[in-house]
Design goal:
single chain; mainly alpha; about 65% helix; elongated
Length: about 180
């Protein structure tokens, strides 16, 4: 350290490190595409469950609940798609924040109306795989969603913080992203 300079703070070190990693590599872009495929597979499972009336969705699953459930799920595609196209992490963080907020609102609403019956969660799976989810019931599913809401709120706040400090570091021009 040069004389007369202050030691770097944890925040400064973290911001520099993340700013250097801002540009996605080719394998990272492929992982973003993989995330999109996974979301589509999950959505397809639920759509299949709904179309084939497996019992997972109750009569309380109306148009508003569909918008909340599928809207939140399909919005999950937006940030990885944007990262894949733009090739940068920090530029897409606002979409991550919006996604967290969308999830929090949708999941909170769905907890209030609870249009699911998790006894039938695995009904769309082949019979030989249904045992994997025998342990999952409505009470546990509600608890997991509540935990997801709590974690999403923390992640949203952290992502806002990251976005600001990393944007500032990138705007200083002293840190260049590497590939």
């Amino acid at each position: 350290m040069e004389s007369g300079t202050m030691p770097k703070s944890w925040l400064d070190t973290m911001a520099e490190r993340e700013a250097k990693l801002d540009v996605l590599t080719r394998p990272q872009r492929i992982w973003e595409a993989f995330a999109i495929v996974i979301i589509f597979l999950i959505a397809s499972y639920f759509i299949y469950s709904q179309v084939h009336d497996t019992g997972f969705f109750t009569s309380a699953f109306g148009p508003t609940e569909e918008i909340a459930f599928y809207g939140s799920l399909f919005f999950g595609i937006v940030p990885p798609l944007a990262r894949m196209i733009v090739g940068k992490r920090n530029a897409v963080r606002p979409l991550d924040i919006v996604g967290a907020i969308v999830f929090i609102v949708a999941a909170s609403y769905l907890l209030g109306v609870w249009p699911f019956n998790f006894d039938y969660f695995a009904a769309a799976l082949p019979q030989s795989l249904q045992f994997l989810f025998d342990w999952l019931d409505n009470d546990l599913a509600m608890l997991l969603i509540e935990i997801g809401i709590f974690i999403s709120a923390i992640v949203a706040v952290w992502t806002v913080f990251q976005y600001i400090v990393i944007r500032n570091k990138l705007n200083e021009g002293r840190v260049k992203p590497t590939q």
